[in-house]
Each structure stands twice: as C-alpha cells, then as structure tokens.
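Meet the record:
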Amino acid sequence: TKFNRMEAYANALLYAIPSFIGLVILETFYKAFVKHIQINHMDLISSISSGVTNVIKDSLGILFIIISYPFVKSYIAIFDMSSYPFWLVFGLAFICLDFASYWNHRLNHKINIFWNRHVIHHSSEQFNLACALRQSISVFIGFYTIFMIPAAILGVPNEVIILASPIHFFLQFWYHTEHIPKLGWLEYILVTPSQHRVHHAINEEYIDKNLSAIFCVWDRVFGTFQEELDDVPPVYGVLKPAQTWNPVLINFQHAARIFRDAWHTKDFMAKLTIWFRPTGWRPDDMKERFPIETIQDVYHFDKYDLKPSVFLIVWSYFQLTMCGILIFSLLYNIGTINQYPDQLYVYSFLIVLGVFGYTTLMDQKLFGRYIEVSRAVLAVGVFMYYGHMFGIDQSVFTMLILMYYILSATVPFFISFEGHDALQNETKVETVVA
C-alpha cells in the first residue's frame, strides 16, 4: 500500500540522513580547518533546508504517476526474470535505472517547464556535499516509467526496481565535492567528482554537460560528455541567479516566471508553446517588459551574500537543527501517525513552514518575523486539537516543542540585519524574483 511504501522509505531515511549530514559536517570542517576556505554558512543552511523539504515531500508521496511500471511491464515484458539469480536481475535493474536517469535528467535541462523540476539542485553558487541535498519539491507528475521501457521489456520485477531505486539515488551523493581530484581510469566508467563539477558549472564550455548519474558511458555515447579542463575552473550556480536562500521560493521561481510570461505576452502561440520551448526561452515582448537579471560574465559577478550577523547565522543553525529533530520525530513515528493521515500532513506543513520562515529571515526580509508568529499560533492550535505533538504522547516532549515555537516567534524581533537596510534589501530581492 501507499502508506507501507512511505514507512519503508521513512525507515531508509532514518539511516541515510545521519550519514549524509555527518559527511557534510566532515567536509565543512576539512574546508575550514585544513584548506582554510571560508564557509558560506547561509548557503550551507539553505542546501540542507532544501533536503528537509524534499524529505517531507517524498514522505507524503505527493506524486501523480502518469503510467506505472508494473502496468507497462505486464503488457510488454518478453522475459520472466523472477527465477534468475538476484545479482543478475539487480544489476540489470540498476543499469536500466541509470539509463532512465540520464534521459530524464537531459529532459529536465532542455525543456523550459521541466527545468523547474531541477533548478533547485543547481541553484547553489557553491559546490559541496550539502548542495547534493538540494532536491526538488516541485515534481508532481511522474513520467519516469517512459524511460524504464528497457527494464519492462526484460521483465525486471517491480520489487527489484523498488529496492534498486533508493540505492541508485543515494550513490549520487558522494561526487558533489571539490576535494577529490580526477580518478584515472575510473573517469571512463563512473561519474566522478571531476565530471560532476563540470555538470554544475555555468561556464560556456561546461553548461548542460555530463548528465549521467552513475555510469558516464551514456554521456560518451550520446554526445554530452565534457572533461574538466585545467585552464577552465568551474563556476557554479545558474545563469539566472536565485537571489534567495529560501528553498521553497527557488523550487517555484522558474515556473512562476514562465507563467507570468505566458499570461502577459501578446504572442498567442508563445502562450501555448513557452512551456515546452528550450530552457530559458522567453517571448521578445516579455524580455523588454520584464527583464531578468542574467549573468553575462561568469568570472565576474557578485554572488548572493547579504553579510549576515553572527547572531543570525547562529539562530539559523539552531532553527535547522530543530527542524532536523522534528523531522526525525516525524519519520520515527510515521507508522503511528499514518493511522491518522491528517496529522502527517499537518506536522509536515509545520516543518515546511518553519523552513520557509527562518530562510525568509536569512534573506533579511522583515515579514519572516510574522511567519514565525503564525507558525507558533498554528502549533499551539495543533496541540490543543490533537493533545500531542509529532506522534509522541509525552508531556515533557510536547512542552519543549511548544516552548521552541514560542521562542521562534519571539527571537526574530531582536535580530538586527547588520550593515543593511532591510526594507531596501527586501525590495531588491522581490524585484529580482519578479
């Protein structure tokens, strides 16, 4: 059932998340104390916060699948692999998933509206293990099965696909780092950190290259491979900078721009076709009416940095930590909470609203304070209605959580946005987003 799959996924995350966060912390300490590289704390917090929202979205199972893999397999399977050795079936499933991942990834890069599903992953102007956690919450329609036809023809069982999928996904984490050099002969077989640095770069030589997930053979066969060049250092980010630390806004920023252009353009055909034009395409009249800041020289541009106060950085880390605790409580008790689906959605909304609130403050927008007040009021209302918080019916835990929400509603009013006029900055950021 849907809830059984959700519980299985939640249990996998209980092991995966600490491993990923531990590696992120290890890399951060290595950069700071061994390489003596200045850490962009807000970018780091934003990346991990994006991972939080993605975990929530995936745990809720909010995805409309156009056509399911078992349905396709039942009609086009030529072989029955249920009696084959497991290692062989798993290997075929993994290769088929990797093939499908390449084409799905390529589609996300090449089609305007599909780029919205993927832009969050490229939005960081840093390249580190944390940016691997920038995963989308704007994927609502699943068409991945279209690319899984080879697996369906071979008759790979659905259970093996379900097992191989998270393994295939988690294995894409390790190569998001600048601290591993080229790996010799492995560069001809696997996707490596060097190759993926190219993929995340916005240099003209690198953009839209190296789309493979695990095996780089797909890029080499289909003409999208590019080696990292010694004389072309990768510059990371997107050509239309996000200009915000808020992962929820980044997830829908590109789609909002497309919708605005489609609504306002006087070109009727553009209204219909803009969605499926090449990524970044805009009607001519919209380029003039709604100009969007675009990086022209990738080697000379100002990265998004609002010079936050030490207190704001510390407070943001505290909020991220609390969101981590709450999401672990949610995942750990998801079996109990699933008996009451409304609670799962309410608690998930509280966590995502928290991410929205503290990342809005990270952007130094004053209305973030009132988001936090609203969150506290909602949390008190939830407690009064359910009698507990996040599936744990323990009065001490519940009181601590309520105290946390009250603290979150109070402290932001004492945060000063040092060195900036908050209102002017708010206007600037909103203009860019528009």
